[in-house]
Amino acid sequence: MTEHSQPVPHHIAIIMDGNGRWAKQKFQPRFMGHRAGLKTVEAIVKHCVKLDVKVLSLFAFSSENWRRPGKEVSLLMELFSVALKQQAKRLHKNNIQLRVIGDLTKFSASLQEQIQQSQLLTANNTGLILNIAANYGGRWDVVQSVQKIAQKVQSGELAVEDISEQMITDSLETADIAEPDLFIRTGGEQRVSNFLLWQMAYTEFFFTDTLWPNFNVDALDDAIASFSNRERRFGRTSEQLQEQTDA
Ligand code: IPE
Ligand code: IPE
Ligand code: MG
Q: Which residue numbers are catalytic?
């Protein structure tokens, strides 16, 4: 470990990308890639529990993913539903708290109900917080936060000049969760694709070409090792951080 090395990240956020290309390489339909990707999710969740990571945020479906062919979208919805059915009890048994963030009103009534039930079942668990982003967009999250605040202004409860960064943070979907320390994107693209925009202002980024179905615990360890060697300065100088460590 280096002088300012970081411990294991408290919060890891992942864009699980490359399912479609993985399937294409194998001359299989894209959906097979999503199914394989689900296996990776299981392995990574398990590893995060083992490493004592506190929060794992996974981008499962973006607000832009509705633009995909209808068939792929409906298969993804079905996969989400099946995964919840199969995994909710296991998550609960492992003391994992499941949360789903995003605009859930666009999902079918039965899927919404299922999400609700799974969240309720695991709500009092004290282990890993597994935060699934579904029909989530970072811009949407900021908008819905600002709307809540604007309502308070309208009702006279809050003055415009009292609106603060903290207030916006506290009205986001991730209100009671610390910001991500480490952001990982698999599949080779180096972009944020409207994930946790506000929350990732000071997150460390890690990009890998590995396609999500091929990502595994060793790859996660590599990402964490990279994170561990970074100096997070938050605007300060390296010397200032050294002084803090010495003090
Ligand atoms: C990510 O994999 C999963 C979702 C967006 C649901 P992709 O489906 O985007 O895979 P590629 O990028 O086409 O390979
Ligand atoms: C981002 O992946 C969303 C998810 C992984 C769920 P995409 O593959 O949809 O991202 P873009 O559109 O290529 O940026
Ligand atoms: Mg993609």
A: 17, 65
Residue 112 maps to a domain: yes
Q: How many domains does the chain have?
A: 1
Residue 133 is part of which domain span? 11-138+178-246
Q: What is the pLDDT of residues 137-171, one digit of tens each?
A: 999 999 999 999 999 999 999 999 999 999 999 99
> Is 6 among the domain residues?
no
Query: How far is residue 143's CA from residue 168's CA, in Å, rounded to a whole number?
Result: 10
Ligand number nearest to the C-alpha of 134: 2
Residue nearest to atom 3 of ligand 2 (CA): 62
101 domain-assigned: yes
The CATH number of whichever domain residue 226 belongs to comes to 3.40.1180.10
Cα pseudo-dihedral 66, 72, 78, 84, rounded to 10: -70
Give the pLDDT of residue 2.
42
Q: Whose CA is nearest to atom 8 of ligand 2?
A: 17
Considering the entire predicted model, what is its pTM?
0.96
Mutate to test the pocket of ligand 2, among 67, 193, 196, 197 (most ligand atoms within 8 A of CB): 193
Ligand number nearest to the C-alpha of 19: 1
Judge whether 133 and 59 are in contact, CB under 8 Å: yes
pLDDT, tens digit, 9 for 90 and up, residues 189-214: 999 999 999 999 999 999 999 999 99
